[in-house]
Design brief:
2 helices; 2 domains; Jelly Rolls; globular; seven-stranded antiparallel sheet; six-stranded antiparallel sheet; 40% strand
């Protein structure tokens, strides 16, 4: 009963935080841009980053958690927090919906995919299909919620003798109408499997490329989840993490005509896109079928690139559900109340693994992956 009450409160809170509205065709802001303009618009980044169709949004979590206690929660700093709904940075971190361990206890999704890129720290995953995992430090989880799945994403603080910095991106990628009610699925893109390449500019300065989806510099990312919009190369979906040495220059190649491309500048002091300066923690929507010169400032600069051909279908988002009509959203809530999307097979709503578990994934079909 306690777990069910917690789940209902969490769903209510999540709906309040992430409720959305109808978008006629995708979710990019419409604007009249002259064809010759490569930089369409520049906007500051908040906690939730704006995206273009086929993406729904992206969140950048960066938390400087302290040493962990015996339960793998913060050893200090819980006083004065609104535990269960803590989204304000205090002492360098948030607890999110966690009460003992930071993170997101069991909650439902339908109609889209979550792609979770963990740069630092670890995530403990558990879901209503019986799958579970621990991944981090460069790993990526690609989860297709499709017709409905509950999952928990907890951030265990494994180190008791030093701080536990957590940094991750979670990207919501939409599914087309034909795929929204297929079976759920998740796969791991382990750090060791993700292509990474270093190239140099004409002055010998390094540019570090990480290809999570799509293709860049003759490097092809591992296949995404099978029913993803990204699974078809014609959809030109790419997720690239790019770091430039101070002063380095890199020509980002052109994409297909009709592709939407956004560049998110999240680390560094300043940089230029062609001749346009881009301030730290700003995003640029750019003309994707034109190559664009990236130039780092006086410090190393890191960007995340999201691109893809738009799905061009109506989008209705309410909290954890993303469908095409309001009636489908209402049906999603009714189905969740009736079936719990398969129930919750775990003893806790916020399960975490043993401190020494290592990186692993156990899939709903019993298949296991162990990465140590």
């Amino acid at each position: 009963m306690e777990a069910e009450n917690s789940r209902r409160k969490f769903l209510k809170n999540l709906s309040a935080v992430a409720a959305g509205s109808v978008v006629a065709s995708g979710n990019a802001m419409s604007m009249d841009t002259p064809k010759e303009e490569v930089i369409k618009q520049i906007k500051p980044l908040g906690f939730q980053w704006e995206t273009q169709d086929p993406f729904i949004f992206c969140v950048h979590h960066e938390d400087f958690f302290p040493e962990g206690n015996e339960r793998m929660g913060p050893k200090t700093g819980l006083e004065g927090r609104q535990l269960g709904q803590d989204f304000i940075i205090k002492d360098g971190y948030r607890m999110y919906h966690g009460r003992q361990v930071p993170g997101f206890p069991g909650h439902p999704h339908r109609g889209f995919e979550t792609i979770t890129l963990v740069r630092k720290g670890f995530v403990d995953h558990s879901d209503s299909a019986g799958a579970t995992a621990r991944y981090g430090n460069g790993d990526v989880q690609w989860m297709t919620a499709a017709k409905g799945l509950q999952h928990a994403e907890m951030f265990p603080l494994l180190h008791e003798d030093r701080p536990n910095t957590m940094e991750l991106f979670q990207i919501w990628l939409n599914l087309p109408r034909k795929s929204k009610m297929l079976e759920p699925h998740f796969k791991m893109l382990w750090s060791e499997q993700i292509p990474k390449k270093t190239v140099q500019d004409e002055q010998g300065r390094n540019i570090y490329l990480e290809v999570i989806a799509g293709r860049l510099e003759h490097e092809t990312a591992p296949a995404p989840a099978p029913n993803s919009w990204a699974a078809d190369p014609e959809h030109d979906v790419a997720i690239w993490n790019i770091k430039l040495d101070a002063g380095a220059r890199y020509l980002l190649p052109a994409a297909k005509a009709g592709t939407n491309r956004s560049i998110y500048f999240y680390e560094g002091d300043r940089m230029h896109l062609n001749e346009q300066e881009l301030a730290h923690y700003h995003q640029a929507e750019v003309k994707a079928d034109s190559a664009i010169m990236l130039t780092a400032g006086d410090k190393p600069c890191s960007i995340l690139v999201l691109q893809g051909q738009p799905i061009n279908e109506p989008v209705v988002q309410h909290g954890p559900f993303v469908m095409n009509t309001r009636e489908e959203i209402q049906q999603a809530f009714a189905d969740y109340q009736a079936t719990q999307f398969g129930g919750w097979p775990w003893e806790r709503i916020d399960p975490v693994h043993d401190r020494q578990a290592g990186r692993f994934a156990r899939h709903s079909d019993g298949r296991e992956e162990r990465m140590g």
